[in-house]
Protein 1
Amino acid sequence: MAVLSLLTDEELIFKFQKGNEAAYNEIVDRYKNKLLNHIFYYTKNKESAEDIVQDAFIRVYLNKDKYKEIAKVSTWIYTIAINLAKTFLAKEKKKNQFSITGKDGEGDFEIPDIKASTDKDILRGELSEIITESIDDLDDKFKEIIILRDVDEMSYDEIAQVLNIPEGTVKSRLNRARLNLREVLEEYVKS
């Protein structure tokens, strides 16, 4: 019997599909910390990120037979987790707004609940805060790509598969995101 830690992700998932629970545990061990760090960038809340990652691995467990060797296992897992994070954020955004209705139901508008924002005390240091805030301020399509490429170190192909966009779009968005970050950081260094 092969030592599980020496097997590729794909070999592990196939063993798991055949009933080897230890192979599943090895997959979880390989990805739980990376995934937690990645999802934290979305939620800015450790507990929420942990819940999303746990839910992602439950879905991997329950849907193990749906994995086909079209994409890498890592891409499949990240796609599940990112979709769960996006769903979570959409629910949080809706939950953290007050709705004000005008006379006779006209003029509805919503005001974000400022108190509902999560703690940002996880990352310490002024530069780390500036970088994190700068990434947060990017449009979602740019933020996602910079996190997947520069934090999670995914290849262009993997990012394209996770986000279901062409590889050229990945490269152009990454370039744009890095230019935006460079501008912000240059301003910070000058001051």
Protein 2
Amino acid sequence: MDISIVIPALNEAKKIRFDVEAAASFIDENKFNGEVIVVDDGSSDGTADAARKASVLSSVGLEVISLEQNSGKGFAVKTGIAKTQGDVVMFADSGTCIPYANALEQIKKIRAGDLDIAMASRRLKDTRILIDRSRKRRFLSWLFRQASIAITGLPRRITDSQCGFKLYNGEIARELFEECQTRGYMFELEILLRALQKGYRIEEFPVEWSCDLDTRLRPRKEAFSVLKELFRIRSLIKK
């Protein structure tokens, strides 16, 4: 299989159908042999049923996994990636904040064996921000990056560890996520640090990005737990 696209979702019944259809259309239009895997992280609004009702061509595989209870975004993505079969594995947030076509060049590089991991970045010069975050959220994002650098040793060359649009060599994705122990949204930092530790080739790329204003994150309320999690991730990587 050429590509697997994993979409984690929590109470996204109003969006998930469009997410699935956009991912499936991307696979079909580019003549990939591919699949879309939705992981419903214990939603209470019928997200899984909405995902199953998406209009998807028979040539594109669709699997919807329903977790019985909310287990965290990291656990949801890990669950989905364990089910993938693609030579390239993509993880994309619900809301289709970035057009899937933005990933074509990176898919080619990974399939050619020239790249292991590609990460969308909202901070690169050529990135186009169509709908931006509030000034407060941008500042909190900056603070998180500084804390990640200071506590975990994240290299400064990594401009955006948390953007929810990433591509991996399939075998590498399944290896890294099998090792991942972070269940919450900071799983991306653990995965990245593990990949750097193993020497995998990582590249950030510019995108067209629109902020999904319907976010589940409440970073200001979670400041202490974020710091605690950063120290926990540091200890995991240094073992």
